[in-house]
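Predict fold of Regulatory protein RecX; 228 aa.
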Amino acid sequence: MTDLERRRQIAQEALRQAEQLARRPKASRSDRPTGPSQSAAEPDERDSRGRRAAVRRRAPSSTAPGAERDLGSDAEPESAAREIVLRKLTAQARSRSELAKALAQKDVPDDAASAVLDRMEDVGLVDDAAFAETWVRNRQERRYLSKRALRQELMRKGVQRDDIDNALAQVEPDDEYEAATALAQKKARAMSGLDREVKYRRLAGALGRRGFGPGITSRVLAEVLDGD
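Predicted 3D structure, encoded as tokens:
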């Protein structure tokens, strides 16, 4: 289990506890003992408020289970922000910039968003360095991406340059060559019956779209097509 997966489990547990607390009914003021000096009109007023609160508690939620809720007018901004962030992290790992954008889309005030994200960073639930390392490893293994393509993806996710550089440092030249070869072999299997020139052109295009340069492309295609 990776560090990021462990952090996700922590986020899920934190969210579960938060939801349990949110489901606990709060005692209404009508349940509190009254003093002898209170007027007779006060219990009626408290009962009325209690009935209105009960109606609000019974009202069906417009948010489907598992979906983030918009920040309501009576919601605590940091509480709402924390709920949104935990749900996002439970679904998949995300960069701080992605989470900040998600909070902005839900109209969370900037100061509340920053405070929550800072606390998440302090406990390790938001960690762009770890996110970048995991992203590079998974995307190269599953999508056969070059370092150039990986850098572009991480930049679009708002990861800082230093974190990107450190994550890409784990990619060796042989790793790129193996990724390019695996991609070319996979694509070539669907091109049986085509002549070499057509295969070369199509495979070169596929490698170029994954960010591989002319040098590695020519080396890989010479090997793949000669062995075809």
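DSSP finds eleven helices and no strands in the chain.
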